[in-house]
Amino acid sequence: MIIVPADEQSIRQAADIIRSGGLIAYPTETYYGLGVDPYNQQALRKLFAIKKRAAHLPILVLIADINQAERLAVLPLPKSFTRLALQFWPGPLTLVCPARPELAPELTGGTATIGMRQSSHHVAQQLVQVFGRPITATSANLSGGAPANTAAQVASFFGQGIDIILDGGETPGTKGSTLVKCEHESIECIRQGMIDFQTIKENNLSW
C-alpha cells in the first residue's frame, strides 16, 4: 500500500489499478471511499472481505453522469430519479432505483436495486472520468465503524489491504450521503445524510 498525493498522474495510476482488479481509496465530498470495478466480482469480494461487510449489504457506486446511470439501472429511469439528479448532482445525494439483473449480486446485496451518485469532489470526479466507468464508493471503514476522513486513517484501518490511497486532504467527514429510493414519482428516505430529506422532498414536489 502507498499513499500518494491525488494529482493527475496518481489518479491515472489508481484507475489502472482498478482496471486490473485492484482496490484503492480516494476522497469524496463526505468521507474517503473504497474503489473497485463494480463489474469485477473478484474485486467486489475483496472489498467485502477487507471491510468485513455482510453480504446482504449493497455497495453504492459513483458515476460520471446520468448516461452512466442508464448502464446500471432498469430503464426507463424513474422520473423522480432524473428530477433529483438534475437538482442535486454533483453532490452528496445517492439515488436508489431498480438495478439491471446482470449486475453482480455482491453489488446489489440481493436487493435488486442500485445506489448511484455523482460526486462533487474534484478527485472523485476525475477518477471516474479517467476510469471511464462507474466505481464503487463505499465508505473507507470496517463494517460498523467510523469512516475515515483522512488518508492516514484509511491506512490505519486497513494496513496493506489497499493498493493505493489517493491523498486529497481531509474530507468533511460529518455525515454520509443522503440515500433516497426513487419510484416512478414518489421517493423514500433510506438514510438521512448531508442533504436534509425535507429539502429533497420539497424539490421533488416542486417540479
What does this structure look like?
This protein is an alpha/beta fold and about 210 residues long. It has one domain: DHBP synthase. Helix content is about 35%, strand content about 20%. It contains 8 helices and 11 strands. The longest helix is centred in the first third of the chain and has 12 residues, at about 10-20. The N and C termini lie far apart (about 45 Å).
Give keywords.
207 residues, alpha/beta, 6-stranded mixed sheet, 5-stranded mixed sheet, globular
- Give me the CATH superfamily: DHBP synthase
Any idea of the CATH class?
A: Alpha Beta
How much β-strand is present in the residues?
15-25%
CATH topology: DHBP synthase
Mean pLDDT: 95
- Radius of gyration equals 16 Å
The end-to-end span amounts to: 47 Å
Instruction: Report the oligomer.
Output: single chain
CATH architecture descriptor name: Alpha-Beta Complex
Q: Spatial order of the strands in the main sheet? A: 7-4-6-5-10-11
Instruction: Say how many strands there are.
Output: 11
Structural class of the helix and strand makeup?
alpha/beta
